[in-house]
Amino acid sequence: MMGKILVTHQTGPNGRKVKRLYIEEASEIHKEFYLSCLVDRQSSKIAFISSTEGGMDIEKVAIEKPSKIVTTKVDLKSEITKEEIEKIILPFQLNDDQKKVASKLLKALYKILIQKDASLIEINPLIITKSDELICLDAKMNFDDNAIFRRPDILELRDLS
């Protein structure tokens, strides 16, 4: 696979050369969700997007099953509230243990988004395993290009290829 060209809707028709490959431990997946948070510049809030249609292209879900996407907008403040967390995770119908894990996850996402000048944090898929554990399988982060000078630690991670 190394040195091969990967073509997806995100790379465009010319694709991108694969230079690094990550291998993930296999998980016994019971359910897959989508979860993201982003800066909503139009409302000056933080928007959390929750969907029970994880593991797929969220843009396709938005077109084909828009009712499966729930957006919760949160005011910018020091931390996210318990009530806001409950609203964000409501579509996932989690048990009490999973809600505790989800609460820690959402607090961390909110904190990172603000402290690291991220513009988007996307987890797809967020899964429940067959043993009922809530786990993030894949994540993507985008950062505000206008603020990256304040984040040399983030800039060092940049892969210009």
List keywords for this structure.
161 residues; 6-stranded antiparallel β-sheet; two-stranded antiparallel sheet; globular
| Class based on secondary structure composition and strand pairing | alpha+beta
Beta-strand content = 25-35%
* Biggest sheet record: 6 strands, antiparallel
Distance between the termini: 16 Å
Q: Tally of extended strands?
A: 8
Series of secondary-structure elements, N-terminal to C-terminal: EEEEHEHHEEEH
How helical, in percent, are the residues?
Answer: 10-25%
Mean pLDDT: 89
Question: Overall 3D geometry?
Answer: globular
Uncertain regions spanning at least 5 consecutive residues: none
Describe the structure.
- The chain has 161 residues and is of the alpha+beta class.
- Helix 2 (82-89) crosses helix 3 (96-115).
- It is globular, with a radius of gyration of 17 Å.
- A hairpin with a 4-residue loop joins strand 3 (29-40) and strand 4.
- The longest helix is centred in the middle third of the chain and has 20 residues, at 96-115.
- 20% of the residues are buried.
- The chain contains four helices and eight strands, in the order E-E-E-E-H-E-H-H-E-E-E-H.
- Strands 3, 4, 5, 6, 7 and 8 form a six-stranded antiparallel β-sheet that branches. Strands 1-2 form a two-stranded antiparallel sheet.
